[in-house]
Amino acid sequence: MRLLVTGPGRLGRPLLAELHRQGITGAVLHRSAAASLPPGWRSVRADVTQPESLAGVCTDIDQVLHLAAVTHSNRSERYAEVNAFGTRNLVAEARRAGIERFTLVSTRAISPAGGAYSRSKIHAEEIVRDSGLAWDILRPAEVYGTEGGTGGEGISALIERCRQGRWVPVAGDGSPLLAPVYLDDVVDGICRAVKAPGHGGVYMLAGPEEMTYLELIRRLSAYFHTRPRTLGVPAGLLALAARALALLPLDKPPLYADQVARLFSPKSHDTESAFRAFGFTARPLEQGLDALFPPPPGGPA
Predict the structure, then answer these.
(1) Spatial distance between the Cα atoms of 34 and 4, rounded to a whole number of angstroms
(2) What string of DSSP letters covers 11-80?
(3) Cβ atoms of 23 and 29 closer than 8 Å
(4) Lowest CB count within 10 Å: 106, 180, 210, 285, which one?
(5) What span, in angstroms and rounded, lies between the C-alpha atoms of 81 and 100?
């Protein structure tokens, strides 16, 4: 099998390494020069927002694995430009090239109530469904482990704050539901999906347990034997602060305009469909943390 993988991002290195281990080769689409790739893989420079740059990217390719997306922006049109229209451009090139199958990596935060990012992903999914190609849609939940346990953003930043016993901001009453899923399990799920014989499904790649934000903090505190302080902030105040920050010329603001809506939006936790279709399973939170933070050699197990 020969894949075109677009914008692998934080999943990139482990995902490409696992695809290579399973005998899959292909090309990786980047807007700029790519980092080192596994043997049998080549780099393709193109931009999904520029249709003319995509000409020929599907040459000698059997299937497209589309991950390229903007996940944080204070410009709603930027989400649409990359996530929706970029998907449309890539689908058009895949059809022109006679590609057999198109797999879109989307998000669990797919509700219209989830803000501009979620709405752009809804549009992208509709484009793929209506493409006329054989398709699958994968919806990862809250992925941790992408920074090797050293912080980062999102749930990885929360894990690191709890590990260090630092203060942790809590949006509203801490009731938003999360389904933390370890990076290696998401990589395994993606690899299983692109190799599975069936198509035409929408699959959640989520952890086996759904828990509130506050429950996650309690679980992390118990695991790390720390006592992080929580700082409750009304959701409305957070949303107002995010809108104010959007007016400032910040490259990476601490909060984006749609993040609060995305956090509180309803999300599915149907992992049975992925298990039935291609055997996807994910480890519980503490087992994922064991893999992410193994004991030092000679230390207690």
Answers:
(1) 14
(2) GHHHHHHHHHHTT-EEEEEESS------TTEEEEE--TT-GGGGTTTTTT-SEEEE-------S-HHHHI
(3) no
(4) 210
(5) 25
Token digits of residue 231:
């700082």
Give every CB contact of residue 299 below 8 A, 6+ residues apart in sequence: none
Render 192-225 in DSSP notation, one character per residue: HHHH-S--S-EEEE--S--EEHHHHHHHHHHHHT
pTM given for the model: 0.94
Check if the beta carbon of residue 171 is closer than 8 Å to that of residue 233.
yes
Helix (H) or strand (E) holding 125: helix 115-129
Please tell me the distance from the alpha carbon of residue 292 to that of residue 289, in angstroms, as a whole number: 5
According to DSSP, residue 10 is labeled G
Q: Which residue has the tokens 């009453």?
A: 173
Nearest to 159 by CA among 135, 178, 140: 178
* Candidate from 18-27, 33-42, 61-70 with smallest mean pLDDT: 33-42
Tokens at residue 279, please?
A: 């055997």
For 49, other C-beta atoms within 10 Å of its C-beta total 16
Q: Read off φ and ψ for residue 67, nearest 5 degrees.
A: -110, -20
Retrieve residue 45's tokens: 């420079």
How big is the chain, counted in residues?
A: 301
d(CA 91, CA 78): 19
Q: Are strands 181-182 and 143-144 parallel, antiparallel or unpaired?
A: parallel
Q: At what angle do helices 155-164 and 213-224 cross, to 10 degrees?
A: 40
Q: Model confidence over 80-134: pLDDT tens digits?
A: 999 999 999 999 999 999 998 999 999 999 999 999 999 999 999 999 999 999 9
